[in-house]
Amino acid sequence: MTALTRTGDRTxxxxxxxxxxxxxxxxxxxxxxxxxxxxTGSGEAAATxxxxxxxxxVQRIGQTLAL
Length: 67
Known about the structure:
mainly alpha
């Protein structure tokens, strides 16, 4: 008696999950958000001088769009 075997082209071994876990997207988004908050909030530091940095730029863009 012969056993039936599957014939076909398998590109991945059995049991390999190719989907990403939820944290594979959540961690980069969280890191980007934290870094963005650090950059935009740095204009209020006591050691900064005169220029205004990114905070001043965001404020000017807001004033321009409010026209």
